[in-house]
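Help! Submission page says 'invalid entity' but I think these are all valid:
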Amino acid sequence: MLSTLRCIVMRDLTLAMRHRSDVLTTVFFFIIVVSLFPLGVGPDAALLKEMAAGVVWVAALLASMLSLTRLFADDYNDGTLEQLMLVPQPLSLIVLGKVLAHWIISGLPLVLMSPLLGLQFGLEGDELIMLMVTLLIGTPVLSLLGAIGAALTLGLRGGGVLVSLLVLPLYIPVLIFGAGAVTASAAGMGADGHLSLMGAILLLALVLAPWASAAALRISVE
Amino acid sequence: MFNLFKYSSPASFYPLAGRLAVGFGIASAILLVIGLYMSFFVAPTDYKQGEGYRIMFIHVPAAWMSMWIYVVMACFAAAGMIWNTRLSSMMASSLAPTGAMFTFIALWTGALWGKPMWGAWWVWDARLTSELILLFLYVGFMALESAIDDPRRAARASGLLALVGVINVPIIYYSVQWWNTLHQGSSIKVVDGGIESSMSEIMLWTLLVMTFACWFYAVAVSLSRVRSTILERESGTAWVKTLLKGEQA
Amino acid sequence: MDKALLEIKELECVRGDKQLFSALSFSLEAGSLLHVHGPNGSGKTTLLRAIAGLVLPENGEICWNGESTEQQQDDFNRELLYLGHHYGLKFELTGYENLKVFANLSGSDISEQEVEAALTRFGLAHCVELSVKVLSQGQKRRVALARLLLQRAKLWILDEPFVALDTAAVALLLGVIKGHVAAGGMVILTTHQEVAMDAGQLQHLYLGETEPR
């Protein structure tokens, strides 16, 4: 089982490394969206600090969604997806591998970039760490849930817009707890509750999302 | 209700759906007349909110129906997935527009109710926000269904989406509640809770009648919608052809 | 000796609102080759994909060793090799990398030498280290076909395998198919090209335009 997972992850990472610009696009999208907010609402430091967690989180949602369409589409177009469905391994495991690779490519860079963006908004110390931790727990959920949407919209015209319509409402709990944890810790309240709820969501998504995505792929590949 | 397995074939369900749709439609119309009369003339004026509260008699049933229909839709979708019955998927997709309509009514009347009560058209109250997210879920379901050309794939894909949605609805609902208690004062809650505690028996009855009117309306409309879907999908089959010939004669 | 038997029972497939075929039944024994004929749009590809488990049939059952393939998907997939219209190759990867991924996922490991040998057999020596995107259409097809030699699958389902191949490669592929059938394997294929096939027990299946319902 682990070897299957490793094989898929390594394959997708190798492919991503041969298309490095795609990875950078996602990260720069994230940075640009976050940087637009101060231009929109004005450079008031207090206001920006209050908004910081929400802005960074919303941008992370959008960035993670942007890269979703590619999750299965390339494999679908060149026929490797149907071959992957025919290997003697559970499809949900293969999906999990692909999601893991997707997270490493598009989620992890966001986590690593976030303290820098937090600094721009005047977050400091513990808040920055909290921002990183919430993104670290939250972005895998985004990839997992997004995989369902990506699988459902596979091969449809306007799939990219459609996937946002399907997936963004599902992202709301993660957004609430993720941004909430940072705000709570900034206000001096504990964020343990938020973090454990996010952990619970992550576990639930880990169990159910690969299975649902696999079912969706079977429907879409027909 | 009806014997699911006997009527799980579209051909035998079509005439039954027609009769049921008429029956539920009439029942709904009668209940609606009674309910509206009760809500405008029988139910007493609320001592705290005056006459404006009467919009509750459409707002609350619409909100209830919007959630209930989503659950029913997901059940039909699940049945469609498990037994691979075409009819269940058709039912699921014909419920969606009605559900979305009730969600929209709930939001709209909520805004109308909110203006005199809270002094604003829109308040980020937990219930209204959840209702808004529910509208997004309905829209996503319908958008996915209409984006897929192959009806079989459309039914299966949107069914799966409904199932994913129904698992998420409680999580979304509780997260919005949590978010709301964290960010808002408790002033809204008092107004909201105040109505329910101060509700007289006649108000409850009115609410109940209106709810059943909405419910029967939903059944009637989705049944007649499923009838057209059946005709559309089965247009090549012999029974539809004889049916159409009979109607033309 | 276990006689692997593929059995199709009362299969019905639809695409959109159109019924492609219904009540299709046949069975295939070890050491036989099934040639599926039919005009464009008659459902050849759909039939092949349905047998492979990629398309959910509207009705009917596909049995492998007497048991429905849906019940034993992993076991069936281990015995199955499906090559469709697409090459199923990642163009950014080399031939070796492509083939290794599928070998690993099928639970076996292959060395570079084995891949080299398989590619050489298909007349593609020294292409192991080249990324697939620089190869020509026919060469890409050959890389995909090399999986036939590298994976020990019993049932081959080949959708138009001769497309883009030159005469030499067609002869080569025919030889490989004959060898497989002679060794007790099973092949189901479609082709529009005139190819002389006389391997093992040759069966023909004709899918025509079905009558409108």
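Support: the input was valid. A stray whitespace character was the problem, and the output above is from the cleaned input. Residues 2-220 of chain A form one domain.
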